[in-house]
């Protein structure tokens, strides 16, 4: 099976790059971590990769809002390069802060000609950072990363993870397009997200952003109750990375 190359793109404040790269390697990919400044110096570097991942953390300290500065860099300097990356049939994944970055760039939800993207992420209903494990279910068959997955149990850790659509019409449109691909089980919604949305994909199904951390549950021993026999043979998050690798088989 071909071994796809994964670019784990980090910025100042990113802190989940090592475990994300490791998760891709456990799934059979070859990963390389690169600072955003190195890519901005030489945009042709992205041509070496088949998968791009923006991992979790606190890029630029979330100083102007979670993912705002990193998202602006993509919008103003990498938009054309990533549009070509997508057009070539390649994959893009944003995890936690990575989703916050993608939601603030045109990569995931392009402006619709009205008031910008149809949705954004905002402060959790609890008004603070929240860290817990949540039960999730997938919807539809559009997303490459979620193929064959019905449910997952993953950790979340964020302060600005509440998915909010511009209005009900916007969320209905995303729903009908099959882009609201990952949901919290209602009782486990940790941030008050509209329609319990935990992850959203683009219109092609090859770009996924999600707030939970699949890279933090790739091994059974990472399950919080594995010693009680509640963990499966592998961590629930590993299949997300395997699906990305299998896409290039």
Q: Secondary structure elements and their pairing?
A:
Blueprint lengths: L4 E6 L6 H10 L3 E6 H6 L9 E4 L13 H20 L3 E5 L1 H7 L15 E4 L7 E9 L12 E8 L3 E4 L2 H9 L5 E3 L12 E5 L5 E4 L27 H9 L3
Parallel strand pairs: 1-2, 1-3, 3-4, 4-11
Antiparallel strand pairs: 5-8, 6-7, 6-9, 9-10, 10-11
Helix pairs in contact: 3-4
Q: Which residue ranges are poorly predicted, with pLDDT under 50 across at least 5 consecutive positions?
A: none
Structural class by sheet pairing and helices: alpha/beta
| Number of spatially distinct domains | 1
Within CATH, the superfamily carries the name Class I glutamine amidotransferase (GATase) domain
Q: Determine the CATH topology.
A: Rossmann fold
- List how many beta strands DSSP finds: 11
CATH class category name = Alpha Beta
Q: Please, what is the average pLDDT?
A: 95
Strand percent estimate = 15-25%
Global morphology? globular
Q: Helix and strand succession?
A: EHEHEHEHEEEEHEEEH
So how many helices?
Answer: 6
Assign a percent range to the helix content.
10-25%
N/C terminus separation? 5 Å
Our Rg estimate from Cα atoms comes to 17 Å
Largest sheet: 9 strands, mixed
As laid out across the biggest beta sheet, the strand order is 2-1-3-4-11-10-9-6-7
């Amino acid at each position: 099976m071909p071994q796809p190359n994964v670019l784990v793109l980090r910025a100042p404040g990113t802190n989940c790059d090592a475990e994300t790269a490791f998760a891709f390697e456990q799934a059979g990919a070859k990963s390389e971590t690169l600072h955003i400044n190195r890519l901005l110096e030489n945009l042709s570097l992205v041509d070496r990769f088949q998968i791009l991942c923006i991992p979790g953390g606190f890029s630029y300290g979330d100083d102007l809002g979670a993912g705002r500065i990193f998202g602006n860099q993509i919008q103003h300097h990498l938009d054309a390069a990533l549009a070509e990356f997508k057009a070539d049939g390649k994959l893009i994944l944003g995890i936690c802060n990575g989703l916050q970055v993608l939601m603030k760039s045109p990569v995931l939800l392009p402006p619709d000609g009205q008031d910008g993207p149809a949705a954004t992420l905002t402060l959790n209903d609890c008004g603070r950072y929240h860290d817990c494990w949540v039960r999730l279910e997938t919807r539809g068959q559009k997303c490459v990363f979620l193929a064959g997955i019905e449910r997952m149990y993953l950790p979340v850790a964020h302060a600005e993870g509440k998915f909010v659509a511009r209005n009900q019409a916007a969320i209905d449109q995303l729903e009908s397009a099959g882009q609201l691909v990952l949901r919290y089980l209602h009782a486990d919604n940790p941030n008050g997200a509209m329609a319990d949305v935990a992850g959203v994909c683009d219109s092609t199904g090859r770009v996924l952003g999600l707030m939970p951390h699949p890279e933090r549950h790739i091994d059974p021993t990472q399950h919080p109750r594995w010693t009680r026999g509640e963990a499966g043979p592998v961590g629930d998050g590993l299949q997300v990375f395997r699906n990305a690798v299998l896409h290039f088989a």
